[in-house]
Amino acid sequence: MSIYDYEVKNADGETVSLSDYKGKVLLIVNTASHCRFTPQFQDLQKLYAKYQKYGFEILGFPCNQFGEQEPGSNQDAVAFCQRNYGVTFPIFEKIEVNGNNAHPLFQYLKKEAPFKGFDETSASGKILKLMIMEKNPEWLVGDEIKWNFTKFLINRDGKVIRRYEPTEEPIDFEKDIETLVTS
């Protein structure tokens, strides 16, 4: 299996094959409109605008599994991203990323790039870990997605290169994207 073997649905419910993105560098993100990490949309859009011409795509997947922070419809999620952050990259259908109903794409991503822990040298890393320990300690075990704005970087060959946790700001790993799009 590779990333290109998966199909997803866009916000209008139409099937999209990830093979349509062959040869591109991808950043796949589970998103939410009402999350403390939602401002990351701003930097994601900046990266998209800067590197899209080099074959870079961001694929956003709204998810309501973490604190019910994406309660609206698919169209609500798209409209929010466009209106508040000027997002022009694709926002797909709302999905689940964990549990029995986790989308097969995210099952694959988690297997290919397992959870390696939070950066507890940062305040946001410490806070997120404490919050999860208090409310959902079972999420800290295994490779499950821990919160909204977990990001997966995919190279042009469809290989999962890296997983970035929610506390990792997109601008902080711009060099990783730049390296892939210019090589």
TrEMBL record:
Keyword terms of this UniProt record: Oxidoreductase, Peroxidase
Similarity remark: Belongs to the glutathione peroxidase family.
One GO term of the biological process aspect: cellular response to oxidative stress
UniProt keyword Oxidoreductase, yes or no: yes
Organism encoding this protein: Parageobacillus galactosidasius
GO-annotated molecular function: peroxidase activity
PROSITE patterns attached to this UniProt entry: GLUTATHIONE_PEROXID_2, GLUTATHIONE_PEROXID_3, THIOREDOXIN_2
Name of the protein in its database record: Glutathione peroxidase
Keyword Oxidoreductase: yes
Source organism superkingdom: Bacteria
SUPFAM superfamilies: Thioredoxin-like (SSF52833)
